[in-house]
Design brief:
Blueprint: E1 2-10, E2 15-23, E3 72-73, E4 85-92, H1 99-103, H2 111-119, E5 124-128, H3 130-135, H4 137-144, E6 149-153, H5 176-190, E7 195-199, H6 208-214, E8 220-222, E9 226-227, H7 236-246, E10 251-256, H8 265-278, E11 282-284, H9 286-294
Parallel strand pairs: 3-8, 4-5, 4-10, 4-11, 5-6, 6-7, 7-8, 9-10
Antiparallel strand pairs: 1-2
Length: 296
């Protein structure tokens, strides 16, 4: 699906709302936001204690937004020193009702892509649904125990947390926190340990009411500023061009590690990674971007 979404950028001093055109994977790459978030990251906030928050020792989180809302991070603030860092993020999507398709042979994983990231020594953040971890526990554990990767929560069901979100089913009102907690429980069951207190909304769709409801989990919602366009894409070069044209110092790129619905991502990375390195970029995780934002 293709759509417009306003998103939230956290800077060291100010908050800006902008609009980006993007393509999504089953509603996963675009969203709607109307949040005024916190202006400065907190580098020494301890691991969140909410039942649905992944446990971590070092990952920083943002302080609550206005009125105690869940804070939202979209990209690192402008760096006056021009430090060239970029975070590649990969959504491991599988909805709660796609079990029959997986049983029929459809692959919602992409182990080759993960292997390529390791081979190219590219750290990354994987936003995983609990249903994906349930379907591929060995892969979830391999990703979640590798120090090159960190795992963020992408809900259990991959159902929307807000209505009118690109055709996604909607989580029942009052069940959103339980859906997040169910994903966390599934990560623990699969043996995922490198979790971070970050949440990515299915479809990227949320509003202030949702941010208020999830606030007790003490997580940071993570969006993006560069849409790869890899969802259902057939042209790897086009995906690479879109990423390379959009990346700026501090960018956060959204991609997917789902073979059936993002079949050319692995190929596109073979061009994206060396080209960005040639331009002087260093690959980091989302936690590194947030930690860097706190120092400015």
């Amino acid at each position: 699906m293709i759509g417009y979404f306003p998103f939230v950028t956290i800077t060291a001093r100010k908050l800006f709302t902008v609009v980006l055109l993007g393509a999504t994977l089953a509603g996963c790459g675009t969203g709607q936001a109307s949040h005024s978030g916190a202006a400065k990251a907190s580098p020494s906030v301890p691991a969140p204690s909410g039942a649905g928050a992944p446990k971590t020792q070092a990952a920083p989180v943002l302080p609550p937004g206005p009125g105690g809302l869940t804070p939202v991070f979209e990209a690192a603030p402008k760096n006056p020193r021009g430090e060239k860092v970029v975070a590649l993020t990969f959504d491991a999507d599988m909805t709660a009702d796609q079990g029959p398709r997986a049983a029929g042979g459809e692959r919602f994983d992409n182990p080759g892509l993960i292997a390529d990231l390791k081979k190219m020594k590219v750290p990354a953040t994987v936003f995983m649904t609990g249903r994906w971890a349930e379907e591929y526990p060995a892969e979830a554990r391999a990703i979640g125990t590798d120090p090159a990767f960190e795992v963020g929560n992408h809900s259990y069901s991959h159902y929307a947390f807000k209505s009118d979100c690109y055709g996604l089913p909607v989580v029942d009102k009052g069940a959103m926190r339980a859906d997040v907690e169910k994903a966390t429980a599934q990560f623990k069951k699969a043996g995922v340990v490198n979790t971070v207190p970050y949440f990515r909304f299915p479809g990227g769709c949320y509003d202030d009411a949702v941010l208020r409801d999830l606030a007790p989990l003490k997580m940071t919602a993570v969006q993006w500023d560069v849409v790869s366009g890899d969802a259902f894409a057939k042209d790897a070069d086009a995906v690479a061009e879109q990423v390379l044209a959009g990346v700026r110092p501090g960018s956060l790129v959204v991609m997917h590690c789902t073979r059936s619905a993002a079949p050319v991502t692995e190929t596109a990375l073979q061009r994206i990674v060396p080209e960005l390195r040639k331009r002087g970029y260093r690959f980091v995780k989302v936690s590194d971007l947030i930690r860097g934002a706190a120092r400015r």
